[in-house]
Amino acid sequence: MALKIVKGSIDRMFDKNLQDLVRGIRNHKEDEAKYISTCIDEIKQELKQDNIAVKANAVCKLTYLQMLGYDVSWAAFNIVEVMSSSKFTYKVSCSHQPIRGERTVDAVLITTIINSVSLPLVTQDLSSPNQYDTGVALTGLSCFVTPDLARDLASDIMTLMSHTKPYIRKKAVLIMYKVFLKYPESLRPAFPRLKEKLEDPDPGVQSAAVNVICELARRNPKNYLSLAPLFFKLMTSSTNNWVLIKIIKLFGALTPLEPRLGKKLIEPLTNLIHRALDLLYGMVSKKNLMEIVKKLMLHVDKAEGTTYRDELLTKIIDICSQSNYQYITNFEWYISILVELTRLEGTRHGHLIASQMLDVAIRVKAIRVFAVAQMATLLDNGHLLTGNMQRNGICEVLYAAAWICGEFSEHLEDPMQTLEAMLRPKVATLPGHIQAVYVQNAAKLFATVLRKQEGTTDSLAAQETSQLLIDRLPLFVQSANLEVQERASCILQLVKYIQKLQQKEVEVAEEVTALFAGELNPVAPKAQKKVPVPDGLDLDAWINEPPSESESEDEKPKAIFTKEEPKHTRPRHTEVDEKELARRREARKQEQANNPFYIKTSPSSQKVYQDQPGVEHIPVVQIDLSVPLKVPGMPMSDQYLKLEEERRQKERSERKKKEKKKKREKHGRGRRADSGPESEEDITPAHHVDIVTEEMPENALPSDDDDKDPNDPHKALDIDLDKYV
Amino acid sequence: MIKAILIFNNHGKPRLSKFYEHYSEDTEQQIIRETFHLVSKRDENVCNFLEGGMLIGGSDNKLIYRHYATLYFVFCVDSSESELGILDLIQVFVETLDKCFENVCELDLIFHVDKVHHILSEMVMGGMVLETNMNEIITHVDAQNKMEKSEAGIAGAPARAVSAVKNMNLPEIPKNINIGDISIKVPNLPSFK
Description:
Chain B: Keywords: Cytoplasmic vesicle, Golgi apparatus, Membrane, Protein transport, Transport. Chain B: Its main location: membrane. Chain B: It is a peripheral membrane protein. Chain B: InterPro entries: AP_complex_ssu, AP_mu_sigma_su, APS3, Clathrin_sm-chain_CS, Longin-like_dom_sf. Chain B: It is found in: Cytoplasmic vesicle membrane; Golgi apparatus. The complex is a heterodimer of chains A (725) and B (193). Chain A is mainly α and 725 residues long. Helix content of chain A is 67%, strand content 0%. Chain A has 36 helices and no strands. The longest helix of chain A is centred in the middle third of the chain and has 25 residues, at 259-283. Chain A is elongated, with a radius of gyration of 44 Å. Chain B has a 5-stranded antiparallel beta sheet, with helices on both faces. A two-stranded antiparallel ribbon of chain B has the order 6-7. In chain B, strands 8-9 form a two-stranded antiparallel ribbon. In chain B, a hairpin with a 2-residue loop joins β4 (62-68) and β5. The mean pLDDT of chain B is 83. The N and C termini of chain B lie far apart (45 Å). In chain B, α2 runs parallel beside α5 (134-152) and α4 crosses α5 (134-152). Chain B has 193 residues and is an alpha+beta fold.
């Protein structure tokens, strides 16, 4: 008897374990099927043995064979038997085995076996002190849970959700999803506890809970709307990326049902998008820059009229101009991107685009021809851009365009056309600094045009050009902007002089060009520091004798002013006699008449001034305007804003609920969101955030060929959870 | 939800297959073959995400794969999972395997597929992601390994000895073992296989 046992154990030593099986299969490549059938016979023998270790070994091998495609459902009972073992090792080997039966008769049989055998076993394991025993039971359960098992074990698993060990809690929460699928009635009692788990201190448990609820909510989103505030809080406080992803997908499913949610989500989502955009800096390389920017441009197109669009614009430019434009391979493409960006309405970054254009045109010599051509087109279509008069609005681009055309005018195809475009009367509506640039560069263009025209011995054309300038410049001379006025006057005089010379048939082109000769190169930011100090110059030495330290000098100036001032002013005052006054007045009047800046007053007030010298006696005239000041060229959007404000004023006075107003002020982004609820949808453009999500419709097509229709559990899970929250 | 996790080599031989939904064995094999066809055609520098084949759920499901040396790791997921997240999960899985097996190679997966299953069950359970932190996963796996070893105890010793012998590769032992001055010549033993 004893010998038998010893013999038996020695026999068992030479049983094939998993490695042997695998090795054997590899060595029998030619007759694999035969070898495997031999092995299966051996396995069947082993399963008949009493020794549980042997059986476990057999089950292990069966798992491997199943992966190769061999049907092992006949061993279901044995697998369950092994599971019943008290030893962890053996249990583990079964936990990966999805036990199932395809054929209906077998299915019933096997499920009965499983239910009757596994239930007590699993229950035993579930309450085991060893957390890994429980863990293994749960893992196994996830593979083969049946409706009956689910029903019976639901309460046990719910208890486990509050286990002391987070490892168990995590697994229990996750398995509840499978339990819900098989036994929908368990959702009602389990839900409050599941909700609690969302705030579990352990992050693993929390993310498991988020996982389960997100899965459930995908199918029946409306039941989970009440959880939205809780998820919002989680989203803003969590740093776990998996959790964030799941919650955002969940919101994607919920937002169509609750539009206000979308508005509330904008802020945190924009933060996330900013973080993502910041990543782009590091991501960019020569190859992908163009594609990335193309994608960003698509986004820019989609994001109409939001600050997001401006952010994108800044980002695009930042990325492109990184490290001295090191990533740009094709500057023509970059210039065309910049020109496309100018078509954006309402941007506040016109100066940024303008400075980029200037930068590229100056630094990249090769691109100047292309750039100049593009800028000329821009100038021709300048009237399209003059609608936006804001500081830093898109009309800033015209500043750059004019300068580039003027400086590099030798590349222009049709300088005459551009000159003409620059001097159109509409230009006078542009902001002052832009007009100034226009005028100056018109002069540069004039030089180029002259050079061209004089070469062709067509003096009439040259004279016509001069005449054009003389005709158009006076408009600028009358401009209210100082700089424009000065430049225009200078250039006008110059052109008049040139015209005189032209009439005498003198070639002037050379000299005019000489006015604008020389390249303007970009200056390095540290250039100033690097200017070498000439020899013999000591910057720290005193230029003059340092003031002496004597105190008398300090006092003296004070004394002069404090003592002598009263002496000086009054005598001066009394010295002046009537004649002096009259003379001075005449001189002043002359000056004022000649001074274009002096606003001439009406004779009555002048008289008053004459009679009573001294500032106090000039009466203050109230300007009484019945008609409101109309600023020409004011953009349309300002009018809308005014209308909006007026309407809001009315509503505020009507509505007396102050809390609502305060709330809206907190939540709103910008002034638009502050308006009343009824009108919000009408006026404001959709502040919608594009969350891409693939929604599963209620009646999704079955995706697996399980016996039951998988949609049934989800339909059954469609209950109102608000009572249980 | 994750529908399936597959590992197969460059010739399409499955090294690990875990399905989280019920299919028959034939369907499973077909799915493995189909997935292999889809994935092996891909160039090295194209996107790691593609739509699932007809059997695995068509366009609703996506295949997210990574190619490491001779192995393809493929996760079949539906739309509730983030593609980049799963890609990261594959990376974590492979790194965990590397830690547990010490410079893992395909042979390790071939001969220790049960261990791979254990590791995977610490990461994904019932089709949902359980744990993504590598250290956590390794802690639990190690703890469970220790449990197994301590359970086996003395009784497991003969079995371990036998498998050690089987794993020994005699032809590779050096012919000459040099310990200082003494030189022992190892006789040329016949192959045990």
